[in-house]
Amino acid sequence: MRQFLDARRVGHLATADATGAPHVVPVCYAIAGATLYVSIDEKPKRASARPLKRLANIRQNPAVAVTIDRYDEDWRRLGWVMLRGTADILADGDEHDRAQALLRARYPQYAAMRIEALPVIALRIGKATSWGDLTPG
Amino acid sequence: MRQFLDARRVGHLATADATGAPHVVPVCYAIAGATLYVSIDEKPKRASARPLKRLANIRQNPAVAVTIDRYDEDWRRLGWVMLRGTADILADGDEHDRAQALLRARYPQYAAMRIEALPVIALRIGKATSWGDLTPG
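Above: the input entities. Below: the structure tokens describing the complete assembly.
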């Protein structure tokens, strides 16, 4: 399962607001121990704008799910891993900085971006489930 | 937005249970009018098994989100569309049969599968939001 997670490049983060209405967006991620880190690399379009919905939802309801999967037109190769648990928002500090270093190591695209001041979502993995073909590649 | 949705092949369906705990899985989909249909092509592994979590969640809480996105290592090409609304589970009937015909037309893989008796999730789209590059292809 871990090899599959390391080999994939994009995950999907699902959150829900206080009323249970779901929200799901593609995310970049890195894993260390039993925590999956998700970068926030978008700022609201205007400084006065509301915070990102995914962050507002986590503040209301910390239960989250992240699914990492492979789609292939050969459906024998379909596979997914879903990680569920509770999320912390890391605004700064040692763990925040280590998480950003892991994300930068996995995604060279971040080299051109200033993400240091942006928060990181830390999913404390409580449960991992999977389906299908999890061979990496 | 519609051209982007038609060009993509996989979406991610997020549901949440009565406590607001999210769940997200990759899904095949087809769109007609203001409804997005998601096929159920897996049976529980055993006849005695619990129903699929996505269906159990919708029965508890019909609010759902489906996101269709493009990942590309050239991040200028990233883009997503999120459709939110409430879901019906169609067990049979005219709309169920039309939805399965649309899904079969989009996915030739279904030709080898017996999906007629399986339910279809119908997302009544209430809100569509998007981000990034939505050029098809």
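Note for the figure: Chain A has one domain: 2-132.
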